[in-house]
Design a protein that fits this description.
Blueprint: H1 12-15, H2 28-31, H3 36-43, E1 49-52, H4 59-69, E2 73-78, H5 84-99, E3 105-110, H6 117-121, H7 124-129, E4 133-138, H8 142-145, H9 148-152, E5 155-158, H10 164-176, E6 187-189, H11 191-199, H12 205-218, E7 220-221, E8 227-229, H13 231-238, H14 250-264, H15 268-280, H16 285-300, H17 306-321, H18 327-339, H19 345-360, H20 375-379, H21 419-434
Helix pairs in contact: 10-12, 11-13, 12-13, 14-15, 14-16, 15-18, 16-17, 16-18, 17-18
Length: 444
């Protein structure tokens, strides 16, 4: 393993914070010509904002740039370490500054979603009065984590992970800047090492710069002088790809939605990718199996009854083998479900039947199909006239089976896909023989 050389006490990501927009990469949908933040920056104006996006995409840097251009006092604190007392102190300072006619105050709150409701409430009157301009940064969906009153008094802007080209620009800046970056070290970054470094960052510039700085510390001497950062060196520094995934937050729901919809759209490649993403991110395989077993009933149904059986078998296989061997059972199931014919007929039929059960309440069971274990019950007509299906042609009878209020209800309407096509044809013939017209149907 390469020897680790001394690193600066100030992290590279901190040293390279952009001093103006020319050094800021990404977020062109907000910073392009004529876009909101570009216009605010050019005018030296700043408004209360919630910057929502994943780590390492420039939320803090943007807040600093906007405040600097507006010549405002920039007060920064983290919701992890600060409380209402700190907010009150900032408000008092802003009020004093206003009386003296000094610069406006921009209050930047990192991880604002970590403040509870009472703490967030403390901002409201001061944001509304304009005493402070609030810029909050969050990785969590503001709709769920920030109180509506605060959201309504700010502008929520969504920041995106950096693209590959934008990350390449960050690498070039770090390698060429001799004052703040690594330019004075005479580093050579192999192309394969660059590809691995950029690809492993997950659109996170901070993660990228941290890995690059450690790679520089591990770099190998070149015979001709200078230092070489190879793919093996970057692999040592990165250790593992930085997955942007939180099992309890929005990204969890985004990814499980992507898996579910890829299965529904019969795309095994996309399904396997999203499955792998969730497993690599540390998702519980049993949770994924439960979701796919549900999918087997909801979206595949009787078009391929094997799907549900394979789901149960995959769950048992995983419990027997564990990870990583048992992960293949999940891939097996996902591929099968993606390729299976699709039908939601059972899902829809059960929904209609359940709605009738709720709407009509506990309707009585027709006497003819009630069980009659006692003489009293037989005397009351329980089971009277019951026809045993096996004694009749096609094992079919015309006896009453539904409450009279639901006579002729039709819930299940098979699709024309997979095994359900044959089931549908047989059921249609049976319904015709019975004279079931669906006149009282409730299937819309």
């Amino acid at each position: 393993m390469p020897e680790i050389r001394p690193m600066s006490s100030v992290p590279l990501a901190q040293r390279l914070r952009p001093r103006d927009l020319s050094e800021f990469f990404g977020q062109s949908h907000l910073l392009g010509e004529g876009k909101l933040l570009k216009l605010l920056y050019e005018k030296g104006a700043v408004v209360s904002l919630i910057l929502w996006g994943p780590p390492g995409v420039g939320k803090t840097s943007l807040a600093r740039l906007l405040a600097g251009k507006a010549e405002a006092d920039f007060v920064e604190f983290s919701a992890v370490l600060s409380g209402i007392k700190d907010v009150r102190e900032v408000v008092a300072q802003a009020r004093a500054a206003r009386r003296l006619g000094n610069r406006p105050t921009v209050l930047f709150v990192d991880e604002i979603h970590r403040f509870n409701k009472a703490q967030q409430d403390a901002f409201l009157p001061h944001v509304e009065s304009g005493l402070v301009t609030l810029i909050g940064a969050t990785t969590e969906n503001p709709s769920f984590e920030i109180i509506p009153a605060l959201v309504s008094r700010t502008r929520v802007l969504v920041l995106e992970p950096l693209s590959r080209e934008e990350l390449e620009n960050v690498v070039d800046l770090a390698l060429n800047d001799k004052e703040r970056g690594l330019g004075a070290l005479d580093l050579t970054l192999e192309e394969r090492a660059r590809d691995f470094l950029v690809g492993s960052s997950g659109g996170d510039a901070r993660s990228l710069l941290n890995a690059l700085e450690l790679s520089a510390a591990l770099a190998l001497p070149r015979p001709a002088g200078g230092w070489l950062v190879s793919e093996a060196v970057v692999s040592q520094a990165v250790q593992k790809k930085a997955w942007r995934y939180d099992k309890g937050a929005e990204e969890h729901y985004n990814l499980i939605s992507a898996l579910h919809k890829s299965l529904r759209d019969s795309d095994p490649d996309a399904a396997l990718y999203w499955l792998a993403r969730m497993l690599e991110g540390g998702e519980d395989p049993v949770y994924l199996l439960r979701r796919m077993i549900r999918f087997a009933s909801e979206d595949v149904g009787l078009a391929d009854p094997l799907g549900l059986l394979l789901g149960a078998a995959a769950l048992e296989s995983y419990r027997l083998l564990g990870s990583p061997e048992g992960d293949l059972a999940l891939a097996h199931l996902a591929t099968h479900l993606a390729l299976a014919p699709k039908s939601n007929a059972v899902y829809k039929a059960f929904g209609l039947a359940r709605k009738d059960a709720r709407d009509f309440g506990p309707l009585p069971v027709p006497l003819v199909i009630r069980n009659a274990p006692t003489n009293l019950m037989r005397d009351l007509g329980y089971g009277e006239g019951y026809k045993y299906a096996h004694d009749y042609e096609n094992a079919e009878t015309d006896q009453e089976r539904m409450p009279k209020e639901l006579k002729d209800r039709i819930y299940y309407r098979p699709s024309q896909r997979g095994r359900e096509k044959a089931l549908g044809e047989a059921l249609a013939a049976r319904r015709e023989r019975r004279g079931e017209t669906g006149g009282g149907k409730k299937d819309e």
